[in-house]
Design a protein that fits this description.
By secondary structure, the chain is of the alpha/beta class. It has helices spanning 20-31, 53-64, 79-90, 113-141, 152-156, 162-182, 207-212, 219-225, 266-271, 273-277, 292-300, and strands at 11-14, 35-39, 68-72, 95-98, 144-149, 187-194, 237-241, 244-248, 310-312, 316-318. β2, α2 (53-64) and β3 (68-72) form a beta-alpha-beta unit. The radius of gyration is 23 Å and the shape is elongated. The structure holds 1,4-dihydronicotinamide adenine dinucleotide (NAI).
Length: 319
Amino acid sequence: MSEQLRYDGQVVVVTGAGGGLGKAYALFYASRGASVVVNDLGGSFTGEGNSAKAADLVVDEIKAAGGKAVSNYDSVEFGDKIIDTAIQAFGRVDVVINNAGILRDTSFKNLKDEDWDLIMRVHVYGAYKVTRAAWPHFRKQKYGRVINTASAAGLYGNFGQTNYSAAKLALVGFTETLAKEGYKYNILCNVIAPIAASRLTSTVFPPELLEALKPEFVVPVVGVLTHKSNTGDTGGIYEVGGGFAAKLRWQRAEGLLLKPDASYTASAIIKNWDKVVDFSKNSTFPAEPNNFIELSEKSNQLPPSEQGEKIDYTGKVVL
Ligand code: NAI
């Protein structure tokens, strides 16, 4: 039998660990030897109210099983206090799981500023505050592992979730840059788009699906990415849940490169539109932006573009 992944001597901060995915992470790390900060504000799924009960119940469960854990009841908006709890209770922080989340779903037409702002504050500002407070510790000890929590809604969009989608995709960009800045300090940062039965999803999925989508079927992937044996996987986006795990990446079509002069017109673009949008030939999977120095050297040597159909902006195509 292969050995279990263990986190002995490490301190793991899990935000929103009073229920759902966060609770499953907290129980996992504690059962594998880590000391865990169980953070949870204890409010409703739309972000109202607060209570110590959610975090305390999980801490009780961990302690009853012989593990080490401490509660923290602050909103992730005060992430520095959560990291303070880790330092005061256990003297260090090794892993941050930014998991806390709420929903304020409504059609874009009906979206109110307060629904936009609260979602941004909890998901984006919250992940920023917790990670920002942990960062100096990570750099100093040359070790840190971060998981941010995106969502399929952020990657693909979903009706009624403009605020949530925007926040969740923001966490992808956040992770990609953290990964670049953290790498030389052995701080590895990845982002997951999980799917799991929880109070956020229990009304959406039928019962048989809820069973297959237990939070426990997200935990192992997070465990692998945050383990010290992961020495290089960083900046990745992973879809995880129900026994499925897959990394995602960006894909760039071959692209259209024309001479940037007066011949660069809408009708020249229309003539070559396939190259802009077609992934079937010569597409690439970039991890970096285009090299515009190289591109401009190439494009300047091109002849002026051939014009195709003329566009007139009254909406007509003039042939
Ligand atoms: P959940 O509602 O069971 O757990 C979220 C926890 O975060 C709750 O215990 C809540 O009290 C806590 N929380 C909320 N606001 C907080 C704040 N300001 N400060 C501290 N704690 C706070 O939901 P679930 O499903 O476990 O979600 C966990 C994460 O996964 C969330 O970020 C969610 O957006 C994300 N997610 C979940 C999916 C799913 O299928 N369950 C799908 C995609 C993303």
